[in-house]
Structures are given as C-alpha cells and as structure tokens.
C-alpha cells in the first residue's frame, strides 16, 4: 500500500500557508510555518512522525528533519540555515532522527523574538562568497585558488553558505582544525580569537570576509599557527608592535594588516612605512615572506633578522596584543 503524502493530512489553510513564499506577511515566514505545524501536531498527536515536529515542553520542541522538510517543501540545507539564522539552538544531539530545539520567545503560545534575534535576522544575505579585497604579490590564478580554498574550509567548518556564524562556535571549530598537534586547544582558541575577533570588537558573529582576511594573513591552513608564532615572536622581541585592534595615532612603532590587501603587513616606524607580504598558499616550510623588492624569506624571523628595526617598548595603554 502506498504511503500517504503527509501534505494530504493537513487542512487546506495550512497547506496554503506552507506554499507561500516568504514575504513581509508574518504568516509566510519560516518561524510562523514551524509554529503552525507544531500547533497542528499538538492537536493531532498521532501525526507526529509524519509531520516531523512536536512540542516536548512549553518552550522546547523536537523535529525530525527528514520528515519536516518533506512537509515544508524545502531542502535540509535550507532548514539548517533557517534554524541557525533565526536563533534556534539545538539542545541535544541527534537520536533516532530527532533533535531537540529551543529559542528565546518561541513557545507553545508565542513566536515573539527578542531584540538580539531581530538584529541577527537583519544581517546581510549571502553574496555567493564574493570577496571585496585583493591580495598583493600573487597572480590572478593564485587569488582564484585562494578563494576556492577559503570557501571550502568555511563550508567545512560551518556547514553553511557565507552567512555570519556564531563567534564562539566558529572559533572552537577553527581551533580544532588549525591547531598544531602538540598545541593545547585552549591556546589555539585564544590565538584565533585575538586575531579574528579581538575583545574590543564585541562580535557575536563572524563574517566570511573576516575569515578570508585571516587566511590571507597566515594561510595556508596546515601552518597557520607556525606563521602566527613566527610573526608574534618578532613583535614581542622588538617592542610588541603587532596589533589586530584599533590603535592610537602617536604610537612610534605599529604593525597592522591592510584591510583591502590583507596579506600585506604595514609596519609604521616613526616617519617610515614598510610593507611586507605573506604568500597565503605557501606553507611555513617554503619561502613565504615577500618584501617590497620581491625578495623572499623563509619566515618572519628571517625577514626581521635581515631587516632589523629600531624600536622602543610600546606602553600597554596603547594596544592590546596577545
């Protein structure tokens, strides 16, 4: 006997709502559609497995993604994106195809969102992993390869397109992936946070462009931590000049990566400005530092050994480094 299409089990008014494309009409949006299905199952508990959702408590619900997407007429990836972007949090891991979810303000009797969730919904829409910056000292082919690699790593880490992701979750996953074998996870996490999302920025989410800029500074992924350690050691030994946060105007020596060409380190020392580039596809075992005259060096240490700088210790009040 053929299995009954779950859509045929729904009242006509609910079918009509599910078939609407998302618009300014609140009832056409994902949150409303999900809440309507949960309410329907609450009145028809025997249909729980066919519809794929059910309230467990007044503010927690379970979903079976495979069944739910069939009813809602969307793909699982679309479901995952909606759940994440709208602030739903998974409470328990998958069990027999079911997962437990919760979101502030989303209850049996309400779908109201708090201000933080509304702000998150207003974040920019995906733009196809398009990057607005360039890379210095590389060919167009290398830049294209760099973009493809960044997109692959981001997708692996987030399981999403280029939408913003939660900062803590992203840093945790990136640390697990990028840390050296002997490196403590906590240390890797602290290093990444200081560079990608420094404390002064108070960032709740990480954008794809931020991640790509980080990869330009210290890629490729296999030796990210080695390149960071090399540059950080040079900074700490010559005045602690490396900064990833806004710094004061009167600092005698300061090094920051350029926003529009993020593989370029700009070193300002009194009246002089020096630019040095990281080759983002060259691992730390190769020559990856390039100076203004296209001379290459095997490390940041080697560059500064051959190009020593005059310095004086920068007061802690000027900048926060690691």
UniProtKB/TrEMBL annotation:
Coiled coil: none annotated. It comes from the Eukaryota. InterPro entries: IBP39-like_C_sf, IBP39_C, Initiator-bd, WH-like_DNA-bd_sf, WH_DNA-bd_sf. Residues 134-305 form the Initiator binding protein 39kDa C-terminal domain. Gene3D superfamilies: Winged helix-like DNA-binding domain superfamily/Winged helix DNA-binding domain. Residues 10-96 form the Initiator binding domain. This is 39 kDa initiator binding protein.
């Amino acid at each position: 006997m053929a299995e009954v299409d779950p859509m045929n089990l729904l009242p006509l008014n609910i079918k009509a709502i599910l078939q609407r494309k998302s618009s300014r009409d609140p009832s056409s949006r994902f949150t409303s559609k999900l809440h309507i299905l949960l309410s329907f199952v609450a009145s028809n508990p025997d249909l729980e497995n066919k519809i794929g959702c059910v309230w467990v408590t007044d503010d927690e619900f379970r979903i079976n993604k495979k069944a739910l997407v069939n009813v809602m007429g969307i793909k699982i990836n679309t479901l995952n994106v909606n759940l994440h972007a709208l602030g739903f949090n998974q409470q328990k891991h998958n069990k027999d195809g079911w997962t437990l979810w919760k979101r502030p303000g989303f209850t049996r009797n309400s779908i109201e969102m708090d201000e933080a969730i509304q702000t998150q919904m207003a974040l920019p829409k995906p733009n196809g992993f398009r990057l607005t910056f360039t890379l210095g000292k590389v060919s167009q082919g290398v830049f294209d390869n760099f973009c493809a690699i960044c997109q692959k790593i981001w997708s692996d880490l987030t399981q999403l397109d280029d939408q913003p992701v939660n900062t803590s979750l992203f840093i945790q996953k990136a640390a697990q992936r990028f840390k050296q074998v002997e490196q403590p996870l906590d240390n890797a996490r602290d290093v990444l946070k200081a560079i990608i999302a420094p404390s002064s920025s108070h960032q709740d989410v990480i954008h794809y462009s931020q991640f790509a800029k980080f990869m330009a500074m210290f890629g490729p992924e296999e030796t990210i931590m080695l390149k960071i350690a090399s540059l950080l050691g040079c900074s700490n030994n010559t005045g602690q000049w490396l900064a990833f946060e806004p710094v004061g105007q009167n600092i005698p020596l300061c090094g920051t990566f350029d926003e529009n060409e993020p593989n370029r380190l700009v070193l300002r020392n009194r009246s002089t400005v020096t630019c040095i580039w990281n080759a983002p596809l060259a691992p730390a075992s190769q020559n990856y530092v390039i100076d203004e005259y296209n001379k290459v060096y095997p490390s940041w240490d080697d560059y500064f050994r051959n190009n020593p700088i005059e310095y004086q210790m920068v007061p802690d009040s000027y900048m926060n480094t690691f």
